[in-house]
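Worked problem 6 (solution included).
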Amino acid sequence: MQRPYTPAPMTQHTFDLLVIGSGPAGQKAAIAASKLGKSAAIIDRRSLLGGVSLHSGTIPSKTLREAILYFTGYRQRSFFGSDYMQKDKITIGDLRARVATVIEREMSVVVSQLRRNHIEVLHGQARFLDPHTVRVESEEGTQDVRGDKILIACGTRPARSPDIVFDGRTVMVADQLGGIEALPTDLIVVGGGVVGLEYASMFATLGIHITVIDQRPTVLDFADREIVDALIVHMREMGTTFRLGEKVTSVTHDARGRVIAQTESGKRIQGEALLYTVGRQVNTDTLDIAAAGLKAGERGHITVNGAFQTEVPHIYAAGDVIGFPALASAAMEQGRMAATCMFDETKCLLLGILPYGIYTIPEISMAGKSEAELTAAKVPYEVGHARFAEIAKGQMVGDSTGMLKLLFHRETLKLLGVHVIGESATEIVHIGQAIMQLNATIEYFRDTVFNYPTFAEAYKVAALNGLNKL
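Solution. The predicted structure is:
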């Protein structure tokens, strides 16, 4: 097992950059500063590095998804029938073993990168004493460190309702899923956001009956409606029930120990377990940021400018702490760019077009504008579609529901948005992202040869479909 990265105890020190949080944003910021010849240190509460992304968020959940796809034989069902399973009885142990292996390997990568770049690591709880000084408190003692520049990348934790008792077994938040003893036969998911739908679709693929409850009338409002509708249809076919426009008012247990979620409209929804995924709370409430001259929003978010600079000029913030899109991928670049803006303003750039990945089953990805945004802005656009059922690669892997959707300007033909659902959606979206970043037109796809058979070929099909409508 990988040993935690524990450097020798340090005396009080001033660093060029002091980073609070060792998740994706903190790691990349510290490494970027080191490569610019600056001294950098990371403070983290745990003796294991990587933050929520590595230990209970991105890496575990996406590894769990891959394990479920493998053990259920999901990708082979179009050939062998909807009842096909790679393993007849899947246990939580099967899934947990794969997750643990990947976490350990990723931990080795993090440790190696920090060592190679001479990043000091201080273990303990960080708390501001003044705008330049942070106290680090741990079981080993207390030390105060100073930073000429400071980056807050403290991450988030699942939000919890004060009206619900969480026991970590039958009523839990996402971070507690790793500790469950057995897979439930039916599961209530409160919250139809990204995290809620990701877990709902994963457990539905295992044959578990899912009920998703959300007080909003629609889910994933930021995503393309046609793509989201396709996801909802697929999840319903997998046995998922959606209770939208419903607010949970209480969570109790019956005499048999089953969970009962009471809604404001009077419905009583039962399940063996309940997963609460209604947003996340930023960890700024543990840092005493007022001592640094900062204030946080309702859920702990910190406001920054385009250079990730807070209202205190030498203090920056990146990652989930600054809010949307709250993605590990975006956090890495935010951290790297924050460090670049601190120490080399000539290379301080605004981030380009960001891709968004939602790891439901099937997965969704997007970059650029949606139809709703283009309509609101009165932009004349056209749509090109490619159905994976029409793509040879889609037939080979058994994806008959996938779809690539291109939005482009009717007059200039510039690509404005890419929206994908299906196998490899989060991979192939980057082709469209690159074309948009280069401000190129949809004609590129028409005039380019793609490997055959591939999912990338869908870009040519979608481009031809759209151009034929003009």
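Discussion: DSSP finds 13 helices and 22 strands in the chain.
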